[in-house]
Amino acid sequence: MEFSQPDRLFKVWDYSVTHRSLLLRSDAHLGLEAGPRIEVSAGHVEVMFLRSTMRGLTIRKVSSADEVEAVAERYGITEHLDYVFLLESADGPGLIVSGDPSWAMADCPVDAPSLFSRAGEVDRYPGGIMGQID
Q1: Cα–Cα distance between 36 and 103 in angstroms, integer?
Q2: Strand ranges (E), the chain
Q3: Can you give the pLDDT at residue 34?
Q4: Taken in order 49, 55, 61, 66, is the CA torsion positive or negative?
Q5: Residues paired with 25 in a beta bridge
Q6: CB-based burial of residue 48 (10 Å sphere; 0-12 exposed, 13-18 middle, 19+ buried)?
Q7: Which mean pLDDT values do the consecutive 10-residue runs of the chain (134 residues) have?
Q8: pLDDT at position 113
Q9: Whether the Cβ atoms of residue 40 and residue 59 lie closer than 8 Å to each other
Q10: Which residues of 6-22 are buried (b: 16+ CB within 10 A; e: fewer)?
Q11: pLDDT of residue 41
């Protein structure tokens, strides 16, 4: 499944070297009006090429053998080619090699912990939803 939020502003919110986990977060639309928080979490990150801020974001898994080959050659990737995800934004392309990323969205206070901070965190907020990019 593809993840697409073209009208949101995303930021690299956290990266843990010890756990190789990446968290992207959006608290606002491109016009900077507040909206529900959206987070994307990827674990077991092996490679990442991305901008710290992205205007709009679409993430999809590279699926065809030709595309995998082209991406591997362009970025010099030789391992874990079954786990390549392309990031597209108005600011340019990006890439992560990781486990299947997950996303979550909920109306929550700006100072609330990450929606991935503990099991069931999204369920604390009415209407909170989650999904996986695979």
Answers
A1: 13
A2: 3-16, 21-29, 34-42, 47-49, 53-61, 84-89, 92-97, 102-106, 129-132
A3: 84
A4: negative
A5: 11, 39
A6: middle
A7: 95 94 94 92 96 97 92 91 95 95 95 92 94 94
A8: 95
A9: yes
A10: eebbbeebeeeeeeebb
A11: 98
